[in-house]
Design brief:
- The model has no long low-confidence stretch (mean pLDDT 94).
- The chain is globular.
- The protein is an alpha/beta fold and 254 residues long.
- The chain starts with 6 loop residues before the first helix and ends with a strand.
- It has helices spanning 7-12, 52-66, 91-96, 151-161, 218-225, and strands at residues 18-21, 28-31, 83-85, 102-106, 116-118, 121-123, 136-142, 162-171, 174-175, 181-182, 184-185, 192-193, 199-202, 206-209, 212-215, 227-233, 247-253.
- The protein contains 5 helices and 17 strands.
- It has a single domain (51-253), classed as 3-Layer(aba) Sandwich (Rossmann fold).
């Protein structure tokens, strides 16, 4: 996200910017609002380009897992921790990519799954991860699993690569007052659209098909796989870290 491209929207939303401290890069900053209708996906920190949603993920990492720091940038080089993030070139990458505790991935058909595309950036398919069992303390996925064709297999793979007692911290669009909306029948080799196709913006591919919108039954799905899951909704105090209108799932492998 190049801030120069959104200057007009930044100026239009001056009343909605928020001063505070970024819990990823650790900078005191003004969180920049470019769209009040989708505030969880912006409120950008101009230093690390993190969004409200990403800082909410950072909040859960800090409060649930590490507990000894107030920002991701403060994680010690010697921290006994292994983090896998299914996103590249984001704020977490900017702060952590030079540390041995961190790797990340994307999927590209031009690379063999499991290959290292550049330092600490791998080609991975979430339905068939190449990592060994019980490798990671934290797996991060943000608004990804609605786009995974076989989402149950994807969640099982995340469970497999996590150490016992470790965490999958993730976001997905979810309706908490109804069951999952299945948009595409994926029971066969070919996709069969049950509803008009829904595409979400993707920074690499431009747009990407949504197979489903999750519902309250996601908790039973995760429980059956072997997770205990809770959800954190943003609150008034989170505004000091530029977190608005957001929720994050925290699934612990038991």
């Amino acid at each position: 996200m190049k801030l120069i491209n959104v200057v007009p929207r930044v100026l239009q939303n001056l009343d909605n910017h928020q001063f505070g401290k970024c819990n990823i890069c650790g900078k005191n900053t003004a969180f920049l609002c470019i769209d009040v209708q989708s505030i969880r996906n912006n409120m950008y920190c101009p230093f690390c380009r993190s969004s409200s949603r990403k800082r909410h993920v950072a909040k859960i990492i800090i409060h649930e897992v590490i507990k000894t720091v107030s920002t991701i940038a403060e994680i010690p080089q010697t921290q006994a921790l292994s983090i896998y993030n299914a996103d590249i070139d984001d704020a977490f990458y900017q702060v952590l990519h030079q540390r041995n505790l961190y790797i990340c991935s994307t999927f590209s058909p031009e690379f063999k799954p499991g290959s290292e595309m550049r330092p600490r950036v791998f080609c991975q398919d979430l339905e068939n991860l190449t990592f060994a069992d019980e490798t990671f303390d934290i797996v991060i996925t943000e608004d990804i699993f609605e786009h995974v064709r076989n989402h149950q297999q994807g969640f099982k793979e995340v469970h497999r690569i996590l150490k016992p007692g470790s965490y999958h911290i993730f976001t997905v669009p979810c309706n908490f007052d109804r069951e999952t909306i299945v948009r595409v029948d994926t029971s066969g080799k070919e996709d069969i659209h049950l509803l008009p196709p829904e595409y979400h913006g993707d920074k690499i591919r431009g747009k990407i098909l949504a197979y489903r919108t999750f519902g309250i039954d996601i908790f039973d799905l995760l429980k059956n796989i072997g997770f205990v899951t809770k959800i954190d909704f943003s609150n008034y105090l989170d505004r000091k870290n530029g977190i608005f209108d957001s929720y994050v799932f925290c699934s612990k492998k038991v």
